[in-house]
Specification:
By secondary structure, the protein is α/β, with parallel strands linked by helices. The protein contains 14 helices and nine strands. It folds into two domains: 206 residues, Crotonobetainyl-coa:carnitine coa-transferase, domain 1 (Rossmann fold, 3-Layer(aba) Sandwich), CATH 3.40.50.10540; 90 residues, formyl-coa transferase, domain 3 (2-Layer Sandwich). It is elongated, with a radius of gyration of 25 Å.
């Protein structure tokens, strides 16, 4: 059974993690993804390389650019993640490639977008979160903002938005027959992720860091340390869950939940009771109880969790689960193989051995010469 994107060909020149994660999701959905370059095998980026094939081109040479154009002519989607203008200097700009493939979907995934005063600025997840107003909301009141790894702007605001935009553009192309340019900026994605909170605040000032219910101010939406130094996550926002939490802990009459004046006492009671047992003991206590209480798992514990194992979330011992779940056209989690397949790919595109030799970068496995620094 083939995936929903079976027959879609993607040429991927993105670097670092957001672009490769987006194209890995599309590969899981059945697209054929060919990565141009991508660095040495064995890097952590192997975690976002499954189901793809890798080639090496020397884009400093005319032959290398001609080979790229040959592949672009047969591709439905092109993805890059350089600062504005860099891809064009490599012969891989939107105007270069749509002249070859007019219905091409061309996606640029960058930090700050293709225009604006910061279009050429360097950045990472922390910078995009800072610009979106999100970082100021994360962490305790009495400390600096907390950094949520690089999960929010890079992956949620970047990778997932890019993958969604590509699928939407492919669908629209079935009606119009036309390609288009996708300008995906991670800072835009981070701003969008803040939209619900901005609407909740309305015209009033945003709460200070650590003072909103969902930022840890509420004692019923917080992590509590157990007797063995581990943690339980409590998300009992609704009254019925809070009542179930309180009664399961054996703390007596359920106190009023939402008056902030009651929160210090509630927090003290929850802190004391959770510290009386181990994480494993509390996990057993709350098994089957509708109170929104979960053990905080370390990363190396996740794949062994009974629910995660039942859901088969991890496949091929991959660090990245295959998502989403589709009933009729399920995703496939292909194996990771970063060996250089330049000769096979280019010969499949009709190039001669002499042309392949001139275009191939043999200086580094699955590498690419001519890439400017980001």
């Amino acid at each position: 059974m083939t995936g929903p994107l079976s027959g879609v060909s993607i040429l991927d020149m993105s670097r670092l993690a957001p672009g490769p994660y987006a194209t890995m999701l599309l590969a899981d959905l059945g697209a054929e993804v060919t990565v141009v370059g991508g660095g040495r095998a064995g890097l952590p980026l192997d975690a976002v390389s499954r189901g793809k094939r890798f080639i090496s081109l020397d884009l400093k040479s005319t032959a290398g650019q001609q080979a790229l154009h040959r592949l672009a002519a047969e591709s439905d989607v092109f993805v890059e993640s350089f600062r504005p203008g860099v891809a064009a200097r490599l012969g891989a700009g939107y105007d270069d490639l749509r002249g070859i493939r007019p219905d091409l979907i061309y996606c640029s995934l960058t930090g700050y977008g293709q225009d604006g005063p910061m279009r050429n600025a360097a950045g990472h997840d922390i910078n995009y979160l800072a610009m979106s107003g999100m970082l100021a909301m994360l962490g305790p009141t009495d400390g600096p903002p907390s950094i949520p790894l690089n999960l929010v702007a890079d992956f949620a605001g970047g990778s997932l938005v890019a993958a969604m935009a590509i699928v939407a553009a492919l669908f629209e192309r079935t009606r119009s027959g036309a390609g288009q340019y996708l300008d995906v900026a991670m800072v835009d994605g981070a701003v969008s992720l803040m939209s619900m909170h901005r609407q909740m605040w309305g015209t009033s000032a945003a709460p200070s860091r650590g003072e909103s219910v969902l930022a840890g101010a509420a004692p019923f939406y917080r992590c509590y340390e157990t007797s063995d130094g581990r943690y339980m996550a409590v998300g009992a926002l609704e009254p019925q869950f809070f009542a179930a939490l309180w009664s399961t802990l054996g703390l007596g009459a359920v106190p009023p939940q939402y008056p902030r004046t009651a929160w210090p006492r509630i927090a003290a009671d929850l802190t004391a009771v959770f510290a009386s047992r181990t994480r494993a003991e509390w996990t057993e206590v709350f098994a089957g109880v509708d109170a929104c209480v979960s053990p905080v798992l370390d990363p190396d514990e996740v794949s062994a969790d009974s629910h995660i194992r039942y859901r088969h979330s991890f496949t091929y011992d991959s660090a990245a689960p295959a998502i989403p779940r589709l009933s009729r056209t399920p995703v496939r989690a292909g194996a990771t193989d970063r060996t250089d397949q330049t000769e096979a790919v280019l010969s499949g595109a009709g190039m001669t051995a002499e042309q392949i030799s001139a275009a191939h970068d043999t200086t580094e496995p699955t590498g690419l010469t001519g890439w400017p620094d980001m």
